[in-house]
Amino acid sequence: MTFEATIDAGYSGETIENVAVVEVPNIDEPDEPGTDVDVDPKDPKSESEKSAALLEKADGNTDEDNPEVGDTLRYTIQTRNTIEDSLIKNLTISDVIPEGLEYVPGTLKVNGEAVTDEEDDDQGHYLDGKVVGHFGDVKDTEWRTLEFDVVVLPGQAGKDIENVAVVDGDNFEKPDEPREEVEIYPR
Length: 187
What we know:
Layout: E1 15-19, E2 34-38, E3 46-56, E4 72-81, E5 88-96, E6 101-103, E7 109-110, E8 113-114, E9 124-127, E10 130-138, E11 144-152, E12 160-168, E13 179-183
Antiparallel strand pairs: 1-2, 3-4, 4-11, 5-10, 5-12, 6-11, 7-8, 7-11, 9-10, 12-13
């Protein structure tokens, strides 16, 4: 006997056991042949964004709408898998802090949860000028977020600071590189 079946959504990367029961009138214990079916996930496709927001003005700075030397900015990087029933293996978001900015210790958050700056058992760290968030395997299409604060250093007035993040997974052909440019005032 042969048949076809459709696998319901949500089983990507799982193994489904299929067991048939063969009953014959003169046999007390029916045969139960089975097989395991590995459900291969679809290929993922990511969508990533990056933004910077003026978080706090430094003493003496009066331009409420634009960042100036000494002000604190908050960077937010978001990504998501746009293909249901696909898998991103070992998703990471990383960001090298550009020249002219200084990371504010203790401000790193992964999915809204504060993490330590140390490379330890939590989902993020800051090391050698780079912030990193680890998200593990992603099977859904929910947004994942990395955020952190920086201070604008002296000598940056009138400059444009471009910041490029890297969103990657073990099965990405090419990482996403969302970017954000911030104009430092006065211009």
